[in-house]
Amino acid sequence: MLISGEKESVTLQTLSLAELRQKIRVNAYTGSTSGLAPGYLQANLVMLPADWANDFLLFCQKNPVACPLIGVTEPGSPFLAEIGADIDISRDVPEYHVFYNGQFETSVSDLSEHWRDDLVIFVLGCSFSFEEALIQSGLTVRNIEQGRNVSMYDTQIACQPAGRFSGNMVVSMRPFTPKDAIRAIQITSRYPKAHGAPVHFGDPTAIGIRDINTPNYGEAVDIFDGEVPVFWACGVTPQNVIRQSKPPICITHAPGKMLITDLLNNALSVL
Amino acid sequence: MLISGEKESVTLQTLSLAELRQKIRVNAYTGSTSGLAPGYLQANLVMLPADWANDFLLFCQKNPVACPLIGVTEPGSPFLAEIGADIDISRDVPEYHVFYNGQFETSVSDLSEHWRDDLVIFVLGCSFSFEEALIQSGLTVRNIEQGRNVSMYDTQIACQPAGRFSGNMVVSMRPFTPKDAIRAIQITSRYPKAHGAPVHFGDPTAIGIRDINTPNYGEAVDIFDGEVPVFWACGVTPQNVIRQSKPPICITHAPGKMLITDLLNNALSVL
């Protein structure tokens, strides 16, 4: 889950969106997409068999902060015109995680061995969209500053159950001074399709996080004196829910390695 | 500075805005205006001699969060049509504070003895406007719940100096759970003319407040387990600045006893 070395990123950032997507499609790049294709919406993915899709659709409807739905494919189709005409969602992600019966099975860069004609793909908003807005407003996003994957934690915040899906919310954490946290709350409130405003700040134990220095996903970042941790709902939540709900197959993106769409981040902002 | 007893408030709240204003004008009511005339904008006041007015106008321009300017009168006039045709600002406030050479001199309910023909009145937005919005969104405002004047504190947050005016910001404090604080930040951001978003939350010492239980103005309120203090810029800031700047005369409202205008709170909201 490490983001790519700076040298590689610099090279990647000179590529056009089409060139970058091609590089990912042929598995010439399998790293983090953090900071790549600036301005373009990156998405979390959940793929489920059609007979599990209605339950998950309802789960997204009941948990829009953790699972902000951008789009849903037809069963068996890896295409979704509304996010980009040339996108093949089964090939255009640097790395996928494959789960069988709720258990993590394998990481792959190509889904050809696991694809099924009944798979429905859910495309969900991602906090990368608001990180860009935070930086453009002059705030420092610690995980980006430190070149690390964002810190993510299992919590005891229960999601609203839907059909066979239930479980707790996963959150991402970014530390800020109170003054910057207030500004970050204002900015991220404009991005409801990218998890929107934080769900908590301050005491980690209040939401069931025992050790802020040991994230369940991603990497730890420094929290400096005078800063408070600020927590946003995270698109890894479905992966936590799937472990408990045990669908026969589920495929997701690997954390930090997103689908880059043709949509603009700013097209998703409100206010 | 105690707000009026509940029995009196209930009676006052049955009055029309015109009736309430008349009661205040004849000094039949000299208490807090918190919770009175719901929906109508209440204002902080600063009155200064004309030869100090330009400096204060610049101070408001440089410190719009503490001093959100609604309007300014012509020298010697207690009227300002844009806030209400029938308002006499020199009579329609329950209690005024009069300062000579930066020193508090007296509290009065009638300005006839202190009025000067060169006085310019600055009408400034007040947090009562956003308290109403917080309550309408289902949040509990502790000072209102506990029937106390809001807690206000001198801080070490320096205002931008302007001409002869300089000094530190005064803040008001309301405790919330982090979840409600996030919502309160969203709501108050919509009211830039009523101090807008908070300037700080959490550790009081970070902004120079030594003892959260001993406010410099108003009254202490309970802060319960799991709550954090949230601090907004306060319209008492000018009174702090005046103590240091020592104009020959300055008249303000008494904290908590505001000018009730004909403007609607919601007319001041943005977004």
TrEMBL record, chains A, B:
EC number: 4.2.1.-
InterPro entries: D-Glu_cyclase, Putative_hydro-lyase, UPF0317
GO molecular function: lyase activity
Name of the protein this chain belongs to: Putative hydro-lyase ABT57_08065
Keyword Nucleus part of the UniProt annotation: no
Superkingdom field: Bacteria
Lineage summary: Bacteria, Pseudomonadati, Pseudomonadota, Gammaproteobacteria, Vibrionales
Protein family according to the UniProt entry: Belongs to the D-glutamate cyclase family.
Gene3D superfamilies: PSTPO5379-like (3.40.1640.10), PSTPO5379-like domain (3.30.2040.10)
This protein's UniProt keywords: Lyase
Organism name: Photobacterium ganghwense
